[in-house]
């Protein structure tokens, strides 16, 4: 974990980031039909990798996770946070979360909201986010809407 660096993603990494997101989602045992349904939602395009809003966790050239921030101050959105399945449970998700929160604060965000996968809701609660509602996704599932207020020091 110590040798994993966090850095801004580069546009040419969009396909690798997309594949990581799809592997991470598949880790939770979703059916092939469901994964096909959300395929486009799990696609990161090169033009979305801008302004250091997509950050990857890199270990010797291998991507192990990433997050993507969206929005304009004061309201930010954690659009994505995915971890390579073999790195789940290693603390990398926490490290990405903490980096995303610090980055959001530096950008002037006062709150960060996200639509959580139901399997990840407990992780976000543990990180200090609270459930503030639900969203009906295109897949027909109800997704928890989570929010964290970004007050205090980084």
What distinguishing features does this structure have?
single chain, 154 residues, Aminopeptidase, seven-stranded mixed sheet, globular
Gross geometry: globular
Distance between the termini: 21 Å
Assembly annotation: single chain
Mean pLDDT: 93
Radius of gyration from the alpha-carbon trace, in angstroms: 15 Å
- The main sheet orders its strands as 1-2-3-4-5-7-6
CATH homologous superfamily heading: Gcn5-related N-acetyltransferase (GNAT)
Helix percent reads 25-40%
Number of domains: 1
Largest sheet: 7 strands, mixed
GO molecular function, one term: acyltransferase activity
Domain N-acetyltransferase: 4-151
Protein name: GNAT family N-acetyltransferase
Keywords: Acyltransferase, Transferase
What does this structure look like?
The chain is α+β, with helices and mostly antiparallel strands and 154 residues long. The protein has a single domain (5-112), classed as Gcn5-related N-acetyltransferase (GNAT) (Aminopeptidase). The protein is built from four helices and seven strands. The longest helix has 15 residues, at 92-106. The chain starts with a strand and ends in a 5-residue tail after the last strand.
């Amino acid at each position: 974990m110590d040798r994993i660096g966090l850095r801004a993603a580069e546009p040419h990494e969009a396909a690798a980031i997309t594949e990581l997101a799809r592997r991470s989602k598949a880790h939770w045992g979703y059916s092939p039909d469901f994964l096909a349904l959300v395929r486009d939602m799990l696609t990161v395009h090169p033009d979305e990798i801008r302004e250091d809003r997509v950050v990857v966790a890199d270990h010797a050239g291998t991507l192990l996770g990433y997050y993507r921030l969206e929005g304009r101050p004061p309201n930010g959105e954690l659009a994505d946070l995915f971890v390579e399945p073999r790195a789940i449970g290693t603390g990398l998700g926490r490290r990405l979360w903490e980096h995303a929160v610090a980055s959001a604060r530096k950008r002037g965000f006062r709150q960060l909201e996200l639509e959580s996968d139901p399997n990840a809701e407990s992780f976000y609660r543990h990180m200090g986010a609270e459930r503030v509602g639900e969203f009906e996704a295109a897949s027909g599932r109800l997704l928890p809407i989570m929010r964290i207020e970004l007050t205090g020091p980084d």
